[in-house]
Amino acid sequence: MENKSWSLSEATIQKGKDKTHTILDTECQVHISHFTLYTCIAEGNESKKWLQLVAFGGRMRVHRHYEVRVYLLNNTPCALQFAIENEKKHGFKAIKCPQEFLFDGNGADMSLQVDRVNEGWSANLSELKETVPYLNIWHGKCPFVSFIFKHEKRATKDICTTISAFQKSHSDYKLKLKLVAKMPRRSKRQRSHKSESSQSERESDSCTNSEGSPASSLQSSGFGPSPTRHDCNFNPGEPQMESFSDDSRSSYSSCSCSPEGHHKDRRRECSKLIPHKLRMSLVHLLEPSDTLGNDWRMIASDLGMDTKIPMLKEKDSPFQEVLKVMEEQNKDLNWLVTKLISHQRLDAAGIVTTYLQTGEIHS
């Protein structure tokens, strides 16, 4: 390699004890506090970047407050992993697949507001508005906003709300997040006990604010600590697709707000089936060879088929054979989604997720 002669510029002058650079024989390492991470360079003088907006929900209970958090992330797999793992610590789960938003680099802040919520929840919509500073988004600091709703009617077993997100410089360009979450069914043992009295519920409700309003929007700190790590420096290990967990938390769906939009029983049945159209969509995405091997071979390896990969390459459709082995090992589509996300194949994971949640297959 040709010898390089490095010289210090004004930007690399040391300030106090902070070391801003390291000079080696063949390279100069500059220490930075953040990385803007351009994900889209549009035509024209102004830069743009793609964001992904992801909504998380906490536990839903009768006559209690329900919190929704919306993250504004760089459109990268590591940013999504960070948000999932951070919310998992506080018992929150994804209630909507990531939605893309083209963010303009003109310095304008981002606004989010609740447009509607279904009957049975009390909320002052005029107060459910939040603003996220431009720099927090542009520098990829994983900001989020929080909205709180108060459950009022025992007969209402789900929440359906619409949240608009837009940049203040382009208020005509809005992203609509339609969020649906459903209360879990109580077990027979739980139904055999009497429900808590309304007085004890009020006493144990820790979400009520100091003004006593039924619903309020919080600053980006939310109830839990705001994430402070830069998204791509976080490596939590294998990510989990939180929206398909079946426990005492709320049940989730990213479908429209119609009553037929979410049926957990149907989703469980769908997770066992791989229709032909879905197979073909996955084959189309995963069979083309990837230079880093991030294709059908990764799923084959997850199934313990490493020794069979050379033989499968000779097949007309190797991933079809992999799917057959997956079924033989009683692995369902939820397992496949988790593996696809861990291998950063969000394109294929999104198709399977849409099928599990809506029954629709988009090729």
TrEMBL record:
Keywords recorded for this protein, A-Z: Receptor
Cellular component terms per the entry's GO annotation: membrane
Record protein name field: Putative netrin receptor UNC5B-like
Region (Disordered): 182-249
Residue ranges annotated for the Death domain, each copy included: 280-354
Domain UPA residue range list: 48-170
Composition bias type Basic residues, residue spans: 182-192
Species the sequence originates in: Stichopus japonicus (Sea cucumber)
Listed PANTHER family: NETRIN RECEPTOR UNC5 (PTHR12582), UNC5C-LIKE PROTEIN (PTHR12582:SF41)
Compositional bias ranges of the Polar residues kind: 206-223
Biased composition (Basic and acidic residues): 193-205
InterPro entries the UniProt entry points to: DEATH-like_dom_sf (IPR011029), Death_dom (IPR000488), UNC5A-D (IPR037936), UPA (IPR033772)
Pfam families: Death (PF00531), UPA (PF17217)
